[in-house]
Amino acid sequence: MRRSRRGVTLAVWVVPGAADDSVVGVAGGRLKVRLRAPAREGAANRALVRFLARRLEVAPAAVRLRHGEGGRRKLVEVDDLDEAGARQRLGLQ
């Protein structure tokens, strides 16, 4: 997690097709997120944006996928949020 011009950038590892949507923790410097959505036709990407918006308490429009649309390793930018706030809302204190 690092500060960006507009807020914070998260390095994320996505596990699609899970039993539930959840933040597992940090592995290899990336936020590990499990999603129920399958890894096809962008479903997991859309689910990730919605899930992070809910967990981080921001509008879905404030969450943007910057890199990794076709893989499990992604970079996500979140506007109007600092690192401390992101860590707290994700339960990573």
Please give a structural write-up:
This protein is an alpha+beta fold. The chain has a single domain (2-84), classed as YggU-like (Conserved Hypothetical Protein Mth637, Chain: A, 2-Layer Sandwich). 24% of the residues lie in helices and 37% in strands. The chain has 2 helices and 6 strands. Strands 1, 2, 3, 4, 5 and 6 form a 6-stranded mixed β-sheet that branches. A hairpin with a 3-residue loop joins strand 1 and strand 2. It is globular and about 30 Å long. The chain starts with a strand and ends with a helix. The model has no long low-confidence stretch (mean pLDDT 95).
Question: Outline of this structure?
Answer:
The chain has 93 residues and is of the alpha+beta class.
Question: Could you outline the blueprint of secondary structure elements for this entry?
Answer:
Blueprint: E1 2-3, E2 7-15, E3 22-27, E4 30-34, H1 43-56, E5 63-67, E6 73-79, H2 83-90
Parallel strand pairs: 2-4
Antiparallel strand pairs: 1-2, 2-6, 3-4, 5-6
